[in-house]
Design a protein that fits this description.
Layout: E1 11-16, H1 18-31, E2 37-42, E3 59-62, H2 65-70, E4 75-79, E5 92-94, H3 97-111
Parallel strand pairs: 1-2, 3-4, 4-5
Length: 112
């Protein structure tokens, strides 16, 4: 993420309870000071996807298929190995950081 943030605007978008979000926010601030923006979605109201965030001109990376399916992102990438929560994803999948970074740079070249 640090490498990508030199060439792209990297925004963390995460879902959690109020208590969980507070912990995530602190963790991101302490571990990833290069991240300039984070979006936190409170799921106390059982909102369990990221569709409320406009990702129209974005590359969206997530490990949960329902989050990927529900967004309007231009490019959607499932990150990581196949698990029950993403086994039905048929789009692009990157299983490690190197593969993900390479895909993002290649995709960016195509759309320019």
């Amino acid at each position: 993420l640090k490498s990508l943030s030199k060439d792209f605007e990297v925004i963390i978008c995460t879902i959690g309870t109020y208590k969980n979000i507070a912990k995530k926010s602190k963790w991101i601030k302490n571990r990833m000071p290069f991240i300039k923006q984070s979006i936190f979605i409170n799921n106390d109201n059982n909102h369990m996807n990221k569709s409320i965030i406009n990702m129209h001109d974005s590359i969206f990376v997530d490990d949960v298929a329902s989050n990927l399916i529900s967004t309007n992102a231009k490019e959607k990438i499932c990150y990581g190995e196949i698990f029950s929560w993403n086994e039905d994803w048929l789009g692009t999948r990157c299983v490690n950081w190197l593969e993900l970074i390479e895909h993002i740079y290649e995709y960016n070249k195509k759309v320019k």
